[in-house]
Write a structure and sequence with these properties.
Number of helices: 3
CATH architecture of the largest domain: 3-Layer(aba) Sandwich
Strand content: 15-25%
Order of helices and strands: EHHEEH
Strand order of the largest sheet: 1-2-3
Helix content: 25-40%
Shape: elongated
Number of strands: 3
Length: 89
């Protein structure tokens, strides 16, 4: 016996329509429809069933050197030092 394969359906809506019909769009996403939200005709977001999106996360680094250190008020490292510690893990 063969199983039916669910093929995602895509729907495009404007940002204005998405704001007005968010509940209905989330129900459609839950049922497997990929909803593409556009702003002036340009796609800006995809509404998909939870867990159906890409698991790949891309981290972008700012090109060039960090700005000169600026001391925060109080004790502790500067903002630049905090950024460096965060980048180094």
């Amino acid at each position: 016996m063969s199983r039916a394969i669910r093929v995602p359906v895509e729907e495009t809506v404007s940002l204005r329509e998405a704001k007005a019909n968010l509940s209905g769009l989330t129900r459609r996403a839950k049922d497997g429809t990929r909803v593409v939200i556009t702003n002036h005709g340009t796609p800006i977001a995809d509404l998909v069933q939870h867990g159906a999106g890409s698991a790949t996360i891309i981290y972008l680094k700012r090109p060039g050197p960090l700005p000169k250190p600026a001391r925060l008020t109080g004790k502790g490292p500067s903002a630049s030092e905090l950024v460096l510690m965060d980048r180094e893990g």
